[in-house]
Amino acid sequence: MSGLLSDLTAAAAVRGATDRAQVDPAAWPDVARLPRGSAARTAVARLIVRQALSRLPLRVRLPDGTETGAAGPVLRLRDPAAFHRRIGADGLIGFGESYMAGEWDADDLVGVLTVLAAQVGDLVPPGLQRLRGMWARRLPRTERNTRDGAARNIQRHYDLSNELFALFLDDTMTYSSALFPALPADPDALGAAQGRKIDRLLDLAGVGEGTRVLEIGTGWGELALRAARRGARVRTVTLSREQRELALARIAAAGLGERVGVDLLDYRDVRGRFDAVLSVEMIEAVGAEFWPVYFGSLARLAAPGGRIALQAITMPHARMLATRDTYTWIHKYVFPGGALPSREAIADTAAGSGLRVIRDDGFAAHYAETLRLWRERFTARSAEVSALGFDRTFQRLWEFYLAYSEAGFRSGYLDVRQVLLTRAAGA
What we know:
This protein is an alpha/beta fold. It is built from 19 helices and eleven strands. The protein folds into two domains: 2-135, no CATH class; 142-364 and 413-423, Vaccinia Virus protein VP39 (Rossmann fold, 3-Layer(aba) Sandwich), CATH 3.40.50. The chain has a seven-stranded mixed β-sheet with strand order 7-6-5-8-9-11-10, sandwiched between helices. Strands 2-1-3-4 form a four-stranded mixed β-sheet. The radius of gyration is 23 Å and the shape is globular. The protein starts with a helix and ends with a strand.
């Protein structure tokens, strides 16, 4: 029996190694090779992981088929040595890279990640958390959201391929949380739910016939289109060349080119005054360092009596403070330069620019459902993603990103909010 278990363990290790060997080292250098890591850090990581997982409603299946844990979704460890080595060297960045390399897997990836997200603040012992600065990587200065840096950061994600995004988004090409009439969401209702979300924001901002509208962060143009159909005159700005190109084509096809202008422009360089300023899930790309500049720009661009409507992903204030300088897997592979605010950070930074929050509504469960639908569409169209030139490592990266994000909303670690701001009295 022991010989059989040894053979199974060896075979599982070979399968994991084979997956890693298939990773393109030019495209994915830190996934294709294991990091240099001391035996001591790997041993500490193994101990922390074992103790953390023992407290969670999660099962871990080892290469020999044995399981630890009595209940919950199953995390399948295909290459435990590589898994612990990556975590020892790079923490949660290593955890994500280990998934990209195929060293661990899960039939219910969202379920596994939801369990972990719900306990993220307690996974590392308090003593080691106090030493966070000694092991957590800090945000690189090359990803600061200066004018040049912001353009590079945005283009790294949003200029991947319009065709790629079209494979999993609905026909409105809206890449932000929908607002469904009922949950769980009907897959066929995604497009209508995106329109419902946009209409709610337009209503908050009082957009109607003759309204002068500024949108910061064009996406692929759906909000601008819907505002123009209400009779508004819209200026929308973006740093993504690919998004601008498709947004212009959609606006022209709708016959609304005279009502909508789309500029490749940083929000800091917009001039003018507008009755309504709207921005959907763009504050996340601003960077905490530049939040005061962002809210100062909103205040400067809003005409007297103007209204500002934002949709923003938020996180708890204490976690924001604890992690705001930490370089994460999401920064490295998905959203360079990104930072999620808390509700308190939004209110306090806005107040510093003479703005006040007069309405703030959350709907995290709707984002979880939006992400589920995107993830299911993305995985179902794997062959088409491959045909666009995106390899299997990229696809595992995006499966992990979408599942990781969904888990954040399902666990309550993340929220999404629509916020209405106006000038404070006397500002």
